[in-house]
Automatic annotation (TrEMBL):
It comes from the Bacteria. Belongs to the ROK (NagC/XylR) family. PANTHER family: BIFUNCTIONAL UDP-N-ACETYLGLUCOSAMINE 2-EPIMERASE_N-ACETYLMANNOSAMINE KINASE, ROK (REPRESSOR, ORF, KINASE) FAMILY. Transcriptional repressor of xylose-utilizing enzymes. It holds the Pfam family ROK. This is ROK family protein. One of its GO terms (biological process) is D-xylose metabolic process. Keywords: Carbohydrate metabolism, Xylose metabolism. Signal peptide: none annotated.
Length: 405
């Protein structure tokens, strides 16, 4: 029935679609609540819900608590009604997930990207995984709704291609229309979207959907990226500016950034900026456990820095604290501008000591100026599959919500 939710639909199918969406968002939920939320009469709601049950799209969760009489029915979506494939392609790994309709990971495959991973080789691997993952779980092909793909490199959505394929160790990505190639091979619909947007979408749908419809997701790794859900819609554009947050100027007298400007957040808080500052201080003779770790200071890499951070090395702690302070200033600027209810921080440093605590403290201290602001900050889900989960979610959303391309 989900396939009938797309395109020009009758008022009745529209109502079914709306109810399915409410149950997906608020489930386990009773008919009484659904009737209040939709404004449909109790009897109408009951009849429509019954139709969704008959189509096996929703089911009773069995969670209703009886207050003496019969146990009330509490509906949730049926996770087994449809399945999704979520893919993340990066220059390090390609991840393929099989997800059920509740976005639970049913199966996963990973490909380490090396010199043999040309565009076609990688997409053939994805197609093979689709067959194998479905077969392993004995899921019939008709239950697959489609394939979603997330990439962190810039993409041209219209042509379905990755714009900066030089980041990959192998070639064969230029002019390869990922969307067409995969949809022909797998005979299903395929969507391509920016990875940061998909991480925001997955966090929203899986963890925060019931709480808010306005959230911001930021991540700090080699680059600093942001994405936003506004009034329940993922904000996307064709301009590929996911890393623009990193080029917000924090100090006009600051260090030169890779973009040519001075004092961008990227030049203070990103992993390369932290590494540069650690090396600068080592060269000045500051004490650190890193001195025993490497021969020449230039050999210091991100793994050394993360290890030093875990060991509470004073030099690295100082540098990370400063980077986090600037990141917090950047975050507060973002909060003032976008006024989200929730900010989710992701990236390599977030699960490590100090960075997240210092950054969120700085941001929240600045926001305190507005006493009625109740913005909350959270760490991103530590699972590494959040982008691929978001990619699968995008496919389901294309049938049930009306907020995606
Ligand atoms: Zn910059």
């Amino acid at each position: 029935m989900l396939r009938q939710f797309v395109g020009l639909i009758s008022p009745k199918v529209k109502s079914l679609k709306l109810l399915y969406s409410f149950i997906r968002k608020f489930g386990p939920v009773r008919i009484k609540e659904l009737s209040e939320m939709t404004g449909y009469k109790h009897a109408t709601c009951s009849r429509l819900v019954d139709e969704l049950v008959q189509a096996e799209l929703i089911q009773d969760s069995g969670l209703g608590e009886s207050s003496g009489g019969r146990k009330p029915l509490m509906y949730v979506i049926n996770p087994d009604a449809h399945y999704l494939i979520g893919v993340e392609i990066t220059n390090l790994y390609t991840t393929v997930l099989l997800l059920d309709a509740q976005l639970t990971i049913i199966g996963a495959e990973k490909l380490k990207m090396d010199s043999q991973c040309t565009g076609r080789y990688t997409l053939d691997f994805v197609s093979r995984c689709v067959d194998e993952l479905l077969a392993k779980q004995s899921i019939p092909r008709e239950k697959l709704l489609g394939i979603g793909i997330g990439v962190l490199s810039p993409i041209d959505q219209e042509r379905g291609v990755i714009i900066q394929p030089h980041l990959f160790t192998s070639d064969g990505w230029e002019d390869l229309n990922i969307v067409d190639y995969l949809s022909q091979k797998n005979n299903t619909i395929v969507f391509l979207e920016n990875g940061t947007n998909l991480a925001a979408l997955a966090e929203y749908r899986i963890n925060y959907w019931k709480e808010t419809d306005n959230l911001v997701f930021v991540s700090n790794d080699m680059g600093i990226r942001s994405s936003m859900i506004f009034q329940g819609r993922l904000i996307t554009n064709q301009n590929e500016m996911a890393d623009a947050f990193g080029h917000m100027i924090i100090d006009v007298h600051g260090p030169r950034c890779s973009c040519g400007s001075y004092g961008c957040l990227q030049a203070f808080s990103s992993l390369p900026a932290i590494r540069n500052e650690v090396i600068r201080r080592l060269k000045r003779g500051h004490d650190s456990f890193l001195q025993e770790k490497v021969g020449a200071v230039e050999e210091v890499d991100f793994f050394h820095i993360l290890e030093a951070l875990e060991r509470e090395d004073t030099l690295v702690l100082d540098v990370v604290k400063e980077a986090a302070y600037y990141f917090g200033i950047g975050l507060s600027n973002l909060i003032f501008l976008l006024r989200p209810d929730i900010v989710i921080c992701g990236g390599t440093l977030v699960p490590k000591p100090l960075f997240y605590e210092a950054a969120s403290e700085t941001a929240l201290n600045r926001v305190k100026h507005y006493s009625n602001s109740n913005v909350r900050m959270y760490r991103s889900t530590t699972a590494y599959n959040i982008v691929a989960q978001g990619a699968g979610c995008m496919v389901l959303d294309s049938f049930t919500e009306e907020n995606l391309p």
